[in-house]
Write a structure and sequence with these properties.
The chain has 9 helices and 4 strands, in the order H-E-H-E-E-E-H-H-H-H-H-H-H. It is mainly alpha-helical and about 325 residues long. It has a 4-stranded mixed sheet with strand order 1-2-4-3, sandwiched between helices. Strand 3 (about 95-100) and strand 4 form a beta hairpin. Helix 5 runs antiparallel to helix 6 (about 175-210). The longest helix is centred in the first third of the chain and has 54 residues, at about 1-55. The two termini are about 40 Å apart.
């Protein structure tokens, strides 16, 4: 049902984009809008991962400079039957994580230094399993296309403001059409984008719990990340709010309501669903993912600080 709902929402987004072009310039405007959308989607398809990782100054890590974190991702990818994604860390005190990439063969997962400091290895495994679920479900590509179309619709709305009034002969609805293109269409696109994001989060939670083997690991992690996101700002996310839907928890604010204007479902609802999975008889692991060793106490986060500064000590190497 989630797949069908996502497909329907994407179809609506595409139709809305074409309709805005029609409102501005009739059939010619619709064709121009189509060409613009195709060009933006082509660019996003090939470059979205590099753009997002660059925005957060993420640095790639491997088994030499982040052996335990890298090993957890490797074992989870094996559990999921996925190719090994590239693994990144970005310097932020806010605990959070995201996935990006156009397909499983060209995917990357990224976690903040704050996430590794605040969470146990089991909880980190739950978070990264969630991100791998997004990759397996190809949500990263879906959300890239959605964000691109939403941005293009807003761009057309701005175009209508400046030029729509001079094209009344091509605009079948005249001034009313311009108002629809300026106000209604961008708002509808934003709501559809948020609805798709919320739908995919529930699916990734379920699949992530299956990948890591214990829904309670992810449930515990979500609670900690939500509390951290509510109190610890993410400056890079504030400068790039269009990327908020990519994170496991909204990095912009401690969103508490599962409403139309939220990019993520209510965290308590997600935790309750995971707890229900555990109570429903799912075979759960009783120990950390292989390669994690929670008994070790004195480990440090890799140096991903800006300007060569050493981040605070944490439970990882």
């Amino acid at each position: 049902m989630n797949l069908v709902r996502t497909a329907m929402l994407l179809a609506f987004m595409t139709a809305l984009f074409m309709f805005v072009g029609f409102l501005i310039g009739g059939r010619a405007g619709m064709m121009i809008a189509f060409v613009i959308a195709a060009g933006m989607n082509f660019f996003s398809y090939w470059n979205s991962d590099r753009m997002v990782l660059s925005a957060y100054r993420a640095q790639q890590v491997d088994e030499r400079n982040a052996p335990e974190f890298f090993a957890i991702v490797r074992d989870l990818a094996r559990n999921a039957g996925l190719p090994m994604p590239k693994v990144y860390l970005y310097d932020s005190p806010q605990p959070n994580a995201f996935a990006t990439g156009r397909n499983p063969e060209n995917a990357a997962v990224a976690a903040s230094t704050g996430l590794l400091q605040a969470l146990s290895p089991e909880e980190v495994a739950g978070v990264m399993a969630h991100e791998l679920a997004h990759i397996q479900n190809r949500d990263t590509l879906t959300m890239t296309i959605t964000a691109t179309l939403a941005g293009a619709i807003s761009m057309l709305g701005n175009f209508a403001f400046f030029f729509g009034g001079n094209r009344e002969n091509n605009n079948p609805l005249g001034f009313i059409g311009v108002l629809v293109a300026m106000i209604v269409a961008p708002l509808a696109a934003m709501l559809v984008q948020m609805a798709i994001s919320r739908t995919r989060e529930y699916s990734a939670d379920r699949r992530g719990a299956e990948i890591c083997g214990n829904p309670l690991w992810l449930a515990s992690a979500l609670g900690k990340i939500a509390r951290g996101a509510a109190h610890v700002p993410n400056e890079d996310a504030e400068r790039n709010p269009a990327t908020a839907h990519m994170f496991i928890i909204n990095p912009l604010s401690g969103e508490r309501m599962d409403n139309l204007f939220s990019t993520h479902p209510n965290t308590e609802n997600r935790i309750a669903a995971l707890q229900e999975m555990a109570q429903g008889g799912m075979n759960v692991s009783t120990g950390p993912v292989r390669a994690a060793n929670p008994s070790r106490k004195s480990r440090s986060v890799p140096n991903t600080g800006r300007g060569g500064s050493q981040p605070p000590k944490g439970p990882w190497s």
